[in-house]
Amino acid sequence: STLKRMCCRSAAHLAYWSLLMEDQIVSFESCRSGGRGGAMAAGVGVALDLESDPTEGASVESLSAEHDLWTLTQHWWIKYLTKFKGVPGQSPTRGHTWSFCFWSVFGTLVSFLMITGMERHMKETYEFSTEKLGFKQTGAYWPVILINSMAAVAGMLFAAPTSPLIQPRMIIGGHLIATSCAVCVDYISNPFRGYGLIPRWVATPLAPAFGILIQLKMGLLHPPACAAAVIFMEGEPEIKNMDWLYVVCPVLLDSILLVVCAVFINNLSPDRSYPQFW
Question: Which of 80, 94, 87, 66 is nearest to 19 (CA)?
Fold first, then answer.
């Protein structure tokens, strides 16, 4: 029928344009300038008539459109599955020298030991009852300094100090963006804080997703910051009760302390230079 032929033709056009946008059938454009004819898409013969009237050659055109759609779909899947093998010519990284390993271990240990020591001091010295403080979510409370995601930041600062993702502006800016998104999402998903508009299991991945979006747009990508956002979304009362203070302490405080440690310790080594840029 005419409707079936038009649907097949539209599907073929859609498949064609999606592959063309991915630069998988570059030679197709040159074939279009000549009107009808065959097109070669990455070595696969494709015969797609883009200029003819749908009412002409109904049976032939219908078969041609179905064949072209199948061919383009098959080509896309082959191209897609080929990527699973990896990029040709790329090989895994080799092990580092003992000197590089020493400075990485030493820097990670000293910088993170400072944060865990501060956390222990705060927990033993300042502990309050959230009921007396008037918090909506009850539980033990103390000024939180340690969050688990900072271990990843410390490791990257000394194991990959030249990575653009671990430079000072990326660390501080990325954490500021991701944790701010987490607090905002918590307001619309946590009934204790604001409005329970969306379930918690949906809100938790939304926080790092929005964080990554803004980080990419602003050029401040720092993946470990998304872990800090999830820690807040799934946090215990001592984390939730901090509200916007969580962004300042522990997140920004830990970020700044780790950056300062990285600047002093990395540059002790003659083979290291940190930061690459501010």
Answer: 80
CA 99 to chain centre: 32
Write the DSSP string, 111-170: HHHHHHHHHHHHHHH--EEHHHHT-SS-SEE------TTHHHHHHHHHHSTT-GGGSHHH
Q: Are 232 and 186 in contact (CB under 8 A)?
A: yes
Q: Which of 276, 17, 27, 24 is nearest to 162 (CA)?
A: 276
Contact 226, 176 (CB under 8 A): no
Residue 56 per-residue DSSP state: S
Tokens of 245: 């203070």
Which one has a higher pLDDT value, 100 or 193? 100
Distance CA 274, CA 113 (A): 20
pTM above 0.85, yes or no: no
